[in-house]
Every structure is written in structure tokens, then in C-alpha cells.
């Protein structure tokens, strides 16, 4: 079943010029990027996005970090894309992330773990709505889509 998910390259990924390398992993896997943009996240948006962590001791550091530089936000689409992307991203703590995952290959530490990806359908819907308007989605077919999605 085709679904959509939200993913965001964090300031460490953008500043380290990893955007293209990470995007190519999704594209090579047959995942469509149907919306994308580079932006500076406001403190208000950061607090809303990470609201589930508001009572945790690292919340203020998280908000400060995610607003410290540009991020690259995107909506990805594919069959079972939430599970696919989460597996590609790897464990939250890079020290526990497998080699071959995005965090395992590029992340430096827990506070600079390169990428965020929605962890459920509910989170994906909420996060996509925070960062994108429906008018920003591009609906298109890949030339090899019949091979990828048989």
C-alpha cells in the first residue's frame, strides 16, 4: 500500500553537505520525493514539532539545535514507506545504528544524528501538515514505476 512519510535532514546534515548523498539513497530505493524544501525552522514550529518531548530534560537543547541552521524537509512516497525509511535511517543513537544506515554512516552523536523520520502514520500525517501545504506536493510517475511497484 502506497503511503507518505515526513523526513527532515537536520542542520548537521545540511551544513556538512550530505543532502545529495542522503537523497540519492531514497531515490535509489525507488522512493519518490513528492515535496521538498530548505528552511529555517522557527522556535514555535520546533516546539510544536517536538512537542511530545516537551517535559524531557533535553527538550530545550533539541529546539535550540533544530533552529540553529537550515533543514531540508521532505515528503516521501512509496509502498510501506514509513517502515522502509525508518529502517534506512537507523537507530536514533548513531553508536547503535548499523553500518549502512544513514545514521550509521553519517551521524556523529545522539545530539547530531543527521535526520528525522516519522515513526508512525499518525506522526507522518501530523508532521507533513506542520511543514507542507497540500499544494506543494508533486504527483508524478517514475519511468520505471511499473517495475518498482509491480
Give the DSSP E fraction (strand runs of 2 or more residues): 15-25%
The residue ranges in which pLDDT falls below 50 over 5 or more consecutive positions are none
Could you name the CATH topology?
Alpha-Beta Plaits
Mean of all residue-level pLDDT scores: 94
Percent of residues in helices comes to 25-40%
The largest β sheet comes out as: 4 strands, antiparallel
CATH architecture: 2-Layer Sandwich
Specify the CATH class. Answer: Alpha Beta
Widest beta sheet: strand line-up: 2-3-1-4
Please give the domain count: 1
Which structural class do you get from the secondary structure elements? alpha+beta
CATH superfamily: Nucleoside diphosphate kinase-like domain
Shape: globular
The Rg value, from CA coordinates, equals 15 Å
- In total, the number of strands is 4
- End-to-end distance, in Å? 12 Å
Short description:
The protein contains eight helices and four strands, in the order E-H-H-E-H-H-E-H-H-E-H-H. By secondary structure, it is of the alpha+beta class.
